[in-house]
Every structure is written in C-alpha cells, then in structure tokens.
TrEMBL record:
This is Sulfotransferase. It comes from the Eukaryota. The chain crosses the membrane at residues 23-45. It comes from Iris pallida (Sweet iris). Keywords: Membrane, Transmembrane, Transmembrane helix. Gene3D superfamilies: P-loop containing nucleotide triphosphate hydrolases (3.40.50.300). The lineage of its organism: Eukaryota, Viridiplantae, Streptophyta, Embryophyta, Tracheophyta. InterPro entries: Nod_factor_sulfotransferase (IPR052796), P-loop_NTPase (IPR027417).
Amino acid sequence: MAEDCFFSDKDTLVIKPQKKNPLLLRMIMLALVMISGVYICSVCLKQRRISFGPNLMKVDIVEQPCPRPNISQAEVLFVHYPQPTTYRRNECRCTPVRYFAILSMQRSGSGWFETLLNSHINVSSNGEIFSVKDRRSNISSITMTMDKVYNLDWFSSAAKNECTAAVGFKWMLNQGLVKNHEEIVSYFNRRGVSAIFLFRRNLLRRLVSILANEHDRNLKQLNGTHKAHVHSKDEAEVLARYKPKIDATKLIRTLDENDKMATDALEYFKNTNHIILYYEDLVNNRNKLMDVLEFLRVPKMKLVSRHVKIHTRPLSEQVENWDVISKSLKGTKYESFLNSDYQM
Ligand SMILES: *[C@@H]1O[C@H](CO)[C@@H](O)[C@H](O)[C@H]1NC(C)=O
Ligand SMILES: *[C@@H]1O[C@H](CO)[C@@H](O)[C@H](O)[C@H]1NC(C)=O
Ligand SMILES: *[C@@H]1O[C@H](CO)[C@@H](O)[C@H](O)[C@H]1NC(C)=O
Ligand SMILES: *[C@@H]1O[C@H](CO)[C@@H](O)[C@H](O)[C@H]1NC(C)=O
C-alpha cells in the first residue's frame, strides 16, 4: 500500500509546467498538485491504519522467536510451540512439544501405561477425555476438545509444572474414534499428532478382565467403592477372587469382533505417524517402554506406576467354566489364548 502511494506521488510531480504559462496558471497547477498530494496521503494513511492496526497489536504478544531445533524436514510437522490462552509457558516457551494420542480398548492395560507415561517429568497424558459423551457427539466437539488439549489449555491431574515436551490423552476405539476415523486421521496428519496403539494380544484375558470389572462395578467389593485399577496386592487379591462364567456360545463371535475392531483401526490409521504396542510385551519387557520415549523424542528415564496387576494367575484358575471354554477354543485360531501366560 505504502509503495503504491509513493509511486503515484511521483507520477503527479512529473507533470512539467510549460515555460510560456503565466504565473496564475502555475499557481493553479501547484494548487492542484498540492490538493492531489494531500488527498493521496490521506487515503494512504487511512489504509495504513486499517492494515497495520491488528499487526501492531500482535507485535505486543509475539516474543523472541524460539531457535529452530536441529531436526530433519520430515520431523518439522511434529514439533510445536503451543501458546496457551490461559497462562504463559514462561521458561518452557521454547521447549518444543509433541502431540500424541494413546489409542486403545478397555481393559488393555492403558490405565497402567498412562500412569507410567505420566511419571515422566516431560509427559502429560490427560486421561480418557472422550469418555464424556458431549465431547465426542460430533466431529466439531472432538476437534475443539483436541485443540484445547494440544494447546496445553486442558487441565487435569496430569498437568505439569515442568516443561511439557509431549502432551496427549487416552482414547478408546469405541469412543467416537472409529466412527469418525476419516476426520480424525486428517486432523492427526494436519496437526502432526502421533498415535500410540496399545492392544492386548490375549483377548480372552481381556474378556476376563472386562467381566471382573463389570462385576465389581455392581458389587463394589473394596469397602463399597468400585475400582478399575488397584494400588496394593491385597486389593488385587480381593478383585481376582471373582471367577467369571463366560458365555461359550458367543465367545468366538465376541473374539472375532474385538479382533476386527483392532485390525480395522490399524488399517484406518496406517498413514499416520504411529507405533504399535502390545500389553503383554510391555509386561514382559519394561525396556519396551523406552521405545515409546524414543518415539515421543523425550529423554529416556525410568518410568514408574503404582498400579498392581489384578489377574496374575493362570487363566484356568480364573474362569468359572474353564472346561467348556477351553473345549470351545481348541482347534480355533484363538487356541493359543488358553496357554499363553505371563512370565512374571
Ligand atoms: C544437526 O544435527 C546433525 C546430525 O543430527 C549434526 O551433524 C549437525 O552438526 C547438527 N547441527 C547443529 C547446528 O547442531
Ligand atoms: C456438536 O455437539 C455439541 C455438544 O453436544 C453441541 O453443543 C453442538 O451444537 C453440536 N454441533 C453440531 C454442528 O452438531
Ligand atoms: C523437561 O522438564 C525439565 C523441567 O521442567 C526441563 O528443564 C527440561 O528442559 C525438559 N526437557 C525437555 C526435553 O523438554
Ligand atoms: C477397608 O476398610 C478397612 C477398615 O476400615 C481397612 O483396613 C482396609 O484397608 C480397607 N480396604 C480397602 C481395600 O480400602
């Protein structure tokens, strides 16, 4: 804008007054030049005020740019410098932040896994935020909720005073994730969100955990409160006493459905930046957790959780109608679920 004005000023001045003209004519010319000059300048000033106003306000807020981290071009999409609206990051302002989401299914160890991640000083995982129906009722609610989390404006017990270098939350496949997968995949790829898949290989054990958890939800065995996770061996012992009876007629179908749900989710999200973890692998080898820290590009450190595993005994001791169940799985692709146990 300013340049346009400058040039038109020049054009006006280029008009040469002719020598023969009397003084009056010169005066008129001069007056015309002055008037047009004043007009052009006033228009210019008005435009300046309009186009520069908001920018001036921005200058106030924008601080020194952070030094660019030394990363490859492919990584740039995944490095963020969020500016929360509710507080200032102060000395953490230039700590780059990675966005992640733990994608899992109920009773697959994600509660335990999340407490492990949250024991890292630079990781904040905000829990199962989409367990609240309103937040997942449509894609705009989902997007708004994620924007808030990734802008570091979401407050939960996981919020850190330390410099957060990875922020995320836990999301169950049946909480609007599979249903809205197209939009969510595009959000992940647009905003550089990394997916951490956490599945359980032994879906029969998962089923036992679901039924036992359901049972406790009704009976509230620990002094009248329902606990999905426990922090002591005694509590675990109380909850593990219950042996569910599994409906053998529906078993194969249930396992098929669960298997398909996980397979489909992996297919939908295959083009996102992701890592796939299995609960059994993490239990058997804690070093696997370091793969996750590497994936999130946060410093490696020991992770701890107070969670105590509830079902530790062989499955045969934890299912009421074991004979029927083992017979119905023999010779199927799920037969291995009957044997594979923990090396704990
Ligand atoms: C950036 O990283 C590469 C390898 O990761 C290294 O060779 C290079 O020296 C680094 N540059 C700076 C300025 O630190
Ligand atoms: C999306 O869901 C929220 C919360 O349930 C609701 O307030 C909003 O009107 C919905 N928006 C659309 C576009 O349906
Ligand atoms: C982790 O947090 C500490 C404490 O706030 C901070 O000094 C450090 O720079 C952070 N590390 C990373 C990689 O962000
Ligand atoms: C239940 O209450 C008893 C006595 O008040 C206490 O000793 C015990 O630790 C409690 N158990 C649990 C699981 O909270």
